[in-house]
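Sample intake — M14-type cytosolic carboxypeptidase
Collected from: Neisseria leonii
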Amino acid sequence: MLKISSQFDGGAIVVKDLTDPANIRLNIRNDNASHFLQWFYFRLQGAAYTPCVMHFENAGEAAFREGWPYYQACASYDRQNWFRVPTRYENGVLTVEHTPLANSIYYAYFEPYSEEQHLNLLGEAQGSGLCQIDDLGSTLQGRDINLLTIGNQADSDLKIWVIARQHPGETMAEWFAEGLLSRLLDPQNPTARALLDRATFYIVPNMNPDGSALGNQRTNAAGANLNREWLHPTLERSPEVYHVREKMRETGVDLFLDIHGDEDIPYVFVAGTEGIPGFTPRIDALQTRFKAALQTASPDFQDEYGYPKDAPGQADMSLATHWVGQEFDCLAYTLEMPFIDNHNLPDDDFGWNGQRSLRLGEAMLSAIWAVLPDLR
């Protein structure tokens, strides 16, 4: 007998009909306190060597539909090794066709990053002897908002802030954070050592622990899109942003990176602060140098495709990158990685995945090192 379950960390799906493996009818579940829907993650049991056809019947109602025609779902037998499975999109329905080779298999919108992985990441970082973990406060459901500080914390240090996973379903962002941390905490890595001689890093690997655990794509437990809360965060609606913003005011910011995933655009790209009132020729030149350095550090990055640049004075100041760039007169970027694949360097078996995100995080240190002398 077939069974689908999702009552686990990050799980989310609605089962409509499971009587026929050739016509499994599903709906993508809304975020818990929002109409937004995109993320799915579930376990299928009892289907070994059975051709399964899974129809996500409300995929046409997803917030980001433009990417579906190029999308391939993720699958794993052990939640460690994920691969892509044949997927098509027709008439508003996303269909996955796959024959599992074992009785238990997981399907997800993207390779997950679990709470257990998050806690292990914190433990490994602290165990390096180079990282201090601080608690900034609690989410609405009582989960910890942790900040990792790496460096001497001297007043003369440049202050590098990196936050990830404001949108909890964009799990590639925490994979990126893991890669950046692994290189930064390597005492034998010359780039890391040189950076830590001159800079202190402040890293929030998961800005949205509640949304991550609940299986949300976009919002926290209150239904807030954290990346629209930076102008006026409150403890009642967006404590995650409130606490991080207060800590930034305490430390200062010389470089800010907000790490995300984009559902529609099949490239790695950045979005800057061209539209904020305080955009200056100095920041413009810094942006150009940073992008050139990141292209050199990682061929996965490109600067041809991405979001349209805001006209002068037209930036939405509730976004993290815009608020931070304006508040601290600093280089600030949103980095986006694809859910689909990187069309510049496609991989039919794995698409864009956790390991590729991790490698991009490692490469980011080289780009930061290239612009470090000009940040202040």
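Post-analysis note: The chain is about 25% helix and 25% strand.
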